[in-house]
Structures are given as structure tokens and as C-alpha cells.
Design brief:
- This protein has 358 residues and is an alpha/beta fold.
- It contains 17 helices and nine strands.
- It folds into two domains: 48-143 and 170-257, Rossmann fold; 264-355.
- It has helices at 20-33, 36-45, 52-55, 62-67, 82-96, 111-122, 137-141, 175-182, 196-199, 201-206, 237-242, 248-251, 264-275, 279-295, 304-316, 325-334, 340-355; strands at residues 101-105, 126-130, 142-154, 162-173, 185-189, 210-212, 222-224, 230-236, 255-258.
- A five-stranded parallel beta sheet has the order 2-5-8-1-9. Strands 3-4 form a two-stranded antiparallel ribbon. Strands 6-7 form a two-stranded antiparallel sheet.
- Helix 13 runs parallel beside helix 15 (304-316) and helix 14 crosses helix 15.
- The chain binds adenosine-5'-triphosphate (ATP).
């Protein structure tokens, strides 16, 4: 007996998930409802860095992203000396023309702080990722990372149970996809630590304004990059030569800006901003760190960070630093020494430099 349906079968359970193209279209339309001025309003209330990990929660629509608690980094401590300002203006010029900027400089010279300060001035949410050797394209763009299982029970005929399990791949956006979709400032720290193949996806983002998404299910593979998307990449001038030489095609799409350690006065201001110690103390610390920097090899140069560390330790010692003064400098540079012999050399260097203090 052939069963003839007398009325349309009603399938229980959720409808099959929206194709990616629908989601993208929906997200793109959402984009239009969030203007940059609205963004500025919301930005004023919040200031913290978008932590990509907390964003790996499936598709965010723009409203969620903007109203959520992710926003710009806190740059209250930022010091903008003349040399910082000059660099910042150059970077903003290129960012304003829509080119990605590649900031290259030695460890601890201030790349990240400068990038975060500029990102805050750009006024869009910041999405940030650290490059490393294990990073893959999927870590940048996202992929089908979750499988949602739904079962559908059909009791259309009371004594017949028809069941089926629907396996629904769940797309998870990763930092680059989020930045391209919602027009965030994409900060890719130490990008040259990642393998060039992982960064290939950036080529069409920077040139054609298209993000190619890996999609196994034949859905929409291409995302049009939001007009407010901006990218700033940093790399360490020492490692830059050593880790993975980025592909020429990618370097060709970026503007490269080399930076070095800031001027004496700016470094003194930075140390004081972070430690509140008196000018003379900060000046002596920076003097010693800069003298050490002049006399050690590239990879052992102490950055501004080392001067801040000594300043914070002196603050901790609350004026009783006399006894430990030399040792503080030796401790902050010891991490970059290779052996006891090397350390002994450094101790002599530190004692000699400190003896020059007036
Ligand atoms: N303009 C600035 N104003 C205030 N603090 C700064 C400034 N530039 C750098 N610093 C401070 O100096 C230290 C090193 O800066 P930062 O981390 O930005 O350097 P970096 O070049 O990114 O270092 P790395 O190569 O290790 O990532 C940090 O403690 C940072 O807060």
C-alpha cells in the first residue's frame, strides 16, 4: 500500500543552517548600520584589546561585536615625544592611504605600544594576533571548527518514528576574518615568525580587497573586505632576517617603516610614565641602559622595557636601591646572556658604565 500524504509533511527540528553567503550578506548589511561616528561613541566607553580567543565563538554580527566589551587597548601610559609623534604621523599617513604598514624594529623598542596607540586613534576595534611557527591560514581566517548535531524526530504517523541526525558544521571566524568582516584594525605582531604559506591569504586581502575563506561545503568562499579594514604588521629587525623571510609578493603590498630605540629624553619620559620615579633617577637608568646597548651585540641589546624594569625595582626598594643598584641592571640583561662567562663580561660592563655616572 503506497502511503499518500494528505497534507504537507511538517519537518520538526530546526531548519538547515543558513548558507554562509546569507550570513555574510546579513553581516554586511549589519555593517552599514554601524557608522564610524557611532563606533566612536561606543569606543569612548570602552577601552580594552580584543582578545581573539574570546572571539572564537562563532559568527558575531556587527552589533554584538560593537556592543560587546571588546574594544581598543588601554594606552593611558603612552608617551608621545617628538620622535614618537613623527613615526606615528608617518604610519597614520600610510594607513590613511589604505596601505598595510610593516613596522620593523629591535625587541623592546616600542613597536607594539606605538601600534596600539595608532589603532586607538584610528578609532576602530582592534583584532590582534601573534605570529608563530605553528600558525596556519585557518588560525587567521577561521574554519569549520565545531560540529553541531541536531536530531529530528518525526512522529507524523503516530506509530511511526522517523529520526535523522543533522550534522551541522559551525563556521568559526578567526581574527583576520573578523577584521575583514567588521572593518577592524588588524594587528599582526611578529608576523615573520609565521610560515609564509600561512600568510598567503593576506595577498588578496591587501591587493584585491577579497578574503578567501577555506570552505569545505561549497559555500561562499570569498568575503569582500570591509572598507574600514586596516592592517599593521610588526616584526623584530633581528629575527626578521632570521625566522621566515616573508614572500616578496607580501612585502610588495606593504609599506615598511624601520624604527629604532627612542631618543634619550623620550626613553626617560617613558620610564617615568611607568614608574613615577624622579627625573634624575630615570635619567641615570636610561643612561646606563643606553651605554650597555652600545656595547653589546644586536641580540643582547636591552630595550626600553629593561629600563622600565629597573625603574620599577627601584620604586619597590623605595629609595634603598643603593645596595642593589648594579645588580638590578645585571639581572635585567642576564636573560640575554648565553653563559656564565658571558654574564661575567656583562657584570664588568655594567660596573664600568655605572662608574661613569656623575
Ligand atoms: N611611547 C611609549 N609610551 C609609553 N610606554 C612605551 C612607549 N613605547 C614603549 N613603551 C613601553 O616600553 C616597553 C616595550 O615596548 P613594546 O612592548 O611596545 O616594544 P616592542 O618593540 O613591541 O617589544 P617586542 O619586540 O618585545 O614586542 C613596554 O613596557 C611599553 O609599555
Amino acid at each position: 500500500m503506497i502511503y499518500k500524504a494528505t497534507h504537507p509533511r511538517k519537518v520538526r527540528g530546526e531548519s538547515v543552517h543558513q548558507p554562509l553567503s546569507e550570513k555574510i550578506k546579513q553581516n554586511q548589511t549589519n555593517l552599514k548600520t554601524i557608522s564610524t561616528s557611532e563606533m566612536h561613541e561606543k569606543l569612548k566607553k570602552q577601552s580594552c584589546l580584543i582578545d581573539p580567543k574570546s572571539l572564537f565563538i562563532g559568527n558575531l554580527d556587527t552589533k554584538n561585536l560593537i556592543q560587546s566589551e571588546y574594544f581598543l587597548p588601554n594606552t593611558d601610559c603612552f608617551v608621545e615625544g617628538p620622535d614618537v609623534k613623527e613615526l606615528s604621523e608617518r604610519i597614520k599617513l600610510w594607513i590613511g592611504t589604505g596601505y598595510p604598514v610593516h613596522l620593523i624594529g629591535p625587541t623592546g623598542c616600542g613597536k607594539t605600544s606605538l601600534v596600539m596607540h595608532i589603532a586607538k586613534e584610528i578609532g576602530r576595534p582592534v583584532v590582534w594576533i601573534n605570529g608563530d611557527d605553528a600558525l596556519t591560514t585557518k588560525d587567521l581566517t577561521g574554519g569549520y571548527a565545531q560540529i553541531k548535531q541536531e536530531s529530528m524526530r518525526d512522529h507524523y504517523i503516530h506509530n511511526v518514528i522517523k529520526s535523522a541526525d543533522i550534522i551541522k558544521p559551525e563556521w568559526i571566524d578567526n581574527p583576520l576574518a573578523i577584521a575583514c568582516k567588521y572593518g577592524c584594525t588588524f594587528v599582526y605582531n611578529e608576523f615573520s615568525r609565521a610560515k609564509p604559506t600561512a600568510n598567503n591569504v593576506l595577498l588578496s586581502v591587501f591587493e584585491e580587497g577579497i578574503l578567501e575563506l577555506p570552505s569545505k561545503f561549497g559555500q561562499e568562499r570569498y568575503l569582500k573586505v570591509h572598507p574600514e579594514f586596516r592592517a599593521i604588521l610588526t616584526s623584530n629587525s633581528i629575527e626578521y632576517a632570521g625566522i621566515h623571510a616573508p614572500q616578496d609578493a607580501l612585502l610588495d603590498r606593504m609599506v615598511g617603516i624601520y624604527m629604532d630605540y627612542y631618543s634619550l629624553e623620550t626613553e626617560i619620559d617613558i620610564v617615568r610614565k611607568h614608574t613615577n620615579i624622579p627625573y634624575e633617577e630615570a635619567k641615570n637608568i636610561v643612561f646606563v641602559i643606553r651605554k650597555i646597548r652600545e656595547q653589546v651585540n644586536e641580540v643582547q641589546k636591552p630595550g626600553t622595557r629593561a629600563a622600565i624594569m629597573v625603574g620599577k625595582a627601584m620604586k619597590q626598594l623605595n629609595g634603598n636601591a643603593e645596595k642593589y643598584y648594579n645588580q638590578l641592571f645585571i639581572d635585567v640583561i642576564a636573560t640575554k646572556t648565553g653563559s656564565n662567562v658571558d654574564l661575567f663580561q656583562k657584570e664588568k660592563l655594567v660596573n664600568n658604565v655605572i662608574s661613569q655616572l656623575t
